[in-house]
Write a structure and sequence with these properties.
elongated; four-stranded antiparallel beta sheet; mainly beta
Amino acid sequence: MYAVFETGGLQFNAEEGALLKVPHLTEKPGDTISIEKVLLVKDGEKAFMGTPYVIAARVEAEIVKEGQAEKIDVYKFKRRTKYRKLTGHRQKYTEIKIKKIVLPEN
């Protein structure tokens, strides 16, 4: 079984048992979440495509851990003014494990 879902403005491919890093969610590790914004579900020969979302389909996942991605450097520079500034940024993420993909009733 295969699904494409949306969370945090990004789309992710999911199969049961997969570990994914998604943008930071408010739930804590150990919680179970249900993602309703499913764009596509495929089960063998049957496929359901949404316009934009598949009604009554959902992806159930468990939150494994939270963390921060690798640091990226942000460098600002203006020529001939002796202006240079270096800052860093670490994006927060939540790692989830896909438990179950629920198909629509049709």
